From TrEMBL, chains A, B:
The lineage of its organism: Bacteria, Bacillati, Actinomycetota, Actinomycetes, Micrococcales. It comes from Arthrobacter crusticola. Residues 24-347 form the Aminoacyl-transfer RNA synthetases class-II family profile domain. GO terms for cellular component: cytoplasm. This is Histidine--tRNA ligase. Homodimer.
Length: 443, 443
């Protein structure tokens, strides 16, 4: 499970690997459906203007153009592949606002493209699974709590090690920095975002050099970022730093609500982490990041936040909150670390053998009876010796072979145990665990 | 259901339209799984060389490049979005031959891109659903019969009008043309391919002018293309034209096998149609096209054929046979003609209401109990008056609302009928037809 992609950064899976990816995708979709999210897709391309307005680094964007431009392709000038699903979703909401019922709960699971340097967990073509709730004008804060719980449930259903959803709040951080006299809060956030990578000393140096921060300001900012609690005790810890600011209070109250509910409903999996900054400018309140415990270097597997004005139409705004799960990042790690195994490589449960070349049509009848009851079946293509037909099934991982005698009697053989029994094509059913390939967590 | 895409040729669906598309995609995947096809995906990009080698018109191809090229992006020069799934699959087979069990049965459902002039049924971004069987060196002819039956079953499970799978055989056509002395069979095929569009007279003119065909040759070629039978009687009709050729005989035998079995297993849905040529050069035997009856102008909704040497690795070849279903073409027609309706617009079956703001967490417990039994549920975000909460559900198409009294008793109301009854969150289940949105064929 460590083949090299023929084009760096564009992973492709073998059929048995794809079964694991499908299991991840199906699981996420099922959880999103159970929570009432409407699935949509958006086109793969956006205008370059639309993409760059949200502040992404432009060299990471893949432009799209006709190989041979002509007059008909002029309307397509300035198109590029989307690098996430949030920006396209914001456009979709604005364009279709008249057709949607707000608050609009949507899930979206699609490929994205970014020209980043490939490494494990960072592909150039990758699948994201997003959920967002968007309101018309207002959106109750409660959705910030709910969405954290939905992704915890979704990630908890995947064959991965335990994980930690780290939550912070932009208002809390910005209010605190303002309260200690650092008014360029965006720049402070950018420096604090580097804490895990370069350490407190270098972040302090950045704050001093770039923002002219005093030692006291640096100490306070770094003390805030050091706070991490699995419960609401962070509130007291922040208060102990002695900073007072209205926005800080608002942020504290919001984050307290998220952590209070989450620590009750998903104990141990959600923590307040006041170092989380998130690079993107459009977040305005709650921000989320998620790490796989013991695999922190993989980076965040699920991130997001609250944005108050990503989408706007005239003076109408559509505030939202959402999270994005990095499906390809997760699947790559499942495959490279063998977190999961699949019970067989093909969907087929039964190979219907051929006694002679003329029995192909009768064998199709048997297969059709099995399929009508949800049992995946295929018919041997040629009437080779039974030993060869069984070997064909074995090589592909098909667990059962079916024999029809000249007298019309049927038998089915489990080629793993060798057990063979009489069977009726309209009645026989394999054990539940053999009905379809099973993806199992490896302990 | 006739909104205009904001970017011509790049359709996007509303949530209720997407439910119909998802139904189509899920149905196809289920049928493919039941027939033992392993699902895979390939990357969206191929090298331009790889794409153009297969003879596509280059101006239809979308090139991909970094918006700001740098040294790191040099390895990506000459990339383009795939325009179908056959060419990428051929590459995948060659690259992964050592990891696949042959004959390899694969399904692949993905987006493709072509810069064609947009019209209904012809988008620039569209989804194809392909099945192919590929052998290592050899591939029994029987798969040509089987794959026709699989797509007939798959299309028959969709909410569309009846359809006709038209089958021809390149060997039959080429042998016949050779037999009447027209040796540039590729050129004859190209002219015959235009029959439906420009008529017999103009095709005859083309054959005379471009290939120097005699009147007798033109008459014979057009007589062959006029043969269309729902059974194997085409064999006698071809023989009556008095042409003799080995390749013709081989083609007749092959096509007879397909039609004999198909007319038995899928009566009326598969016909021998000797005018079918298929534009692509790589087909070497059976060719398929499918039209929706009464919607022939939409073009083919499912096409394909046998190819003997699309994929090769040194002197090893991987012959295959496959068909490609035009999902976007089908879904566009379902939506524009209202062939199908969806029972509701959201996955949610139950809205759990809030009696007061403090009951949110208890309401989440109710919702969690429902979800644990597969019932999609969401919780109201704010404790507005019940009338407003019911209106919220009604506007989104959620059929049931749940009430929890101060005494801990539960009631559930069907807001369509107004019927309200006591209910236990661990036991209550909606009628089966209300569990999830149902996509129904409109009679």
């Amino acid at each position: 499970m460590a083949r090299k992609a023929s084009l760096s950064g564009f992973p492709e899976w073998l059929p048995q690997e794809r079964l694991i990816e499908l299991h991840v995708l199906d699981t996420l979709r099922r959880v999103f459906d159970l929570h009432g999210f409407s699935n949509i897709e958006t086109r793969a391309v956006e205008t370059v203007d639309q993409l760059l307005r949200k502040g992404e680094i432009d060299k990471e964007v893949y432009a799209v153009s006709r190989l041979q431009a002509d007059e008909a392709s002029a309307s397509e000038a300035g198109l590029a592949l989307h690098y996430d699903l949030t920006v396209p979703f914001a456009r979709y909401v604005v364009e279709n606002a008249g057709h949607l019922a707000f608050p609009f709960r949507r899930s979206q699971i699609q490929k994205c493209w970014r020209g980043e340097r490939p490494q494990e967990g960072r592909a150039r073509e990758f699948t994201q699974a997003d959920i967002d709730v968007v309101g018309d004008g207002v959106l109750p804060f409660r959705y910030d709590v709910e969405l954290a719980l939905v992704v915890v449930e979704a990630l908890g259903a995947l064959p991965i090690p335990d994980f930690t959803l780290r939550v912070n709040n932009r208002k809390l951080a910005e209010g605190f920095y303002r309260g200690i006299g650092l008014t360029d809060t965006a720049s402070v956030l950018r420096s604090i975002d580097k804490l895990e990578k370069i350490g407190a000393a270098k972040v302090g140096q950045l704050l001093r050099e770039e923002l002219g921060a005093t030692d006291a300001q640096v100490d306070a900012a770094i003390a805030l970022a050091a706070i991490r609690t699995p419960d609401t005790s962070f509130v007291a810890q922040v208060r102990a730093l002695g900073v007072s600011d209205d926005l800080l209070e608002e942020g504290l109250t919001e984050l307290e609500q998220v952590i209070a509910e989450a620590s009750k409903r998903a104990p141990g999996r959600v923590v307040a982490d006041l170092s989380i900054a998130r690079g993107l400018d459009y977040y305005t309140g709650t921000v989320y990041e998620t790490v796989l415990n013991g695999h922190e270097s993989l980076g965040s597997i699920c991130s997001g936040g609250r944005y108050d004005s990503l989408a706007a139409k005239g003076n109408r705004t559509f505030p939202g909150v959402g999270l994005s799960i990095g499906v390809t990042r997760i699947v790559s790690r499942i495959l490279s670390q063998d977190f999961a195994a699949v019970s067989r490589q093909v969907p087929t449960a039964v190979l219907v053998t051929l006694a002679d070349e003329d029995s192909w049509s009768a064998a199709q009848d048997v297969a059709a009876s099995l399929r009508a009851r949800g049992i995946s079946a295929e018919v041997a293509a040629t009437a080779e010796k039974f030993g060869k037909q069984i070997k064909f099934a074995d090589r592909r991982g098909i667990p059962f072979v079916w024999f029809t005698g000249a007298d019309g009697t049927h038998e089915v053989k489990d080629i793993r145990s060798g057990a063979q029994e009489a069977a009726d094509p309209d009645l026989w059913t394999p054990p539940a665990e053999d009905l379809a390939p099973q993806v199992l967590r490896v302990p």
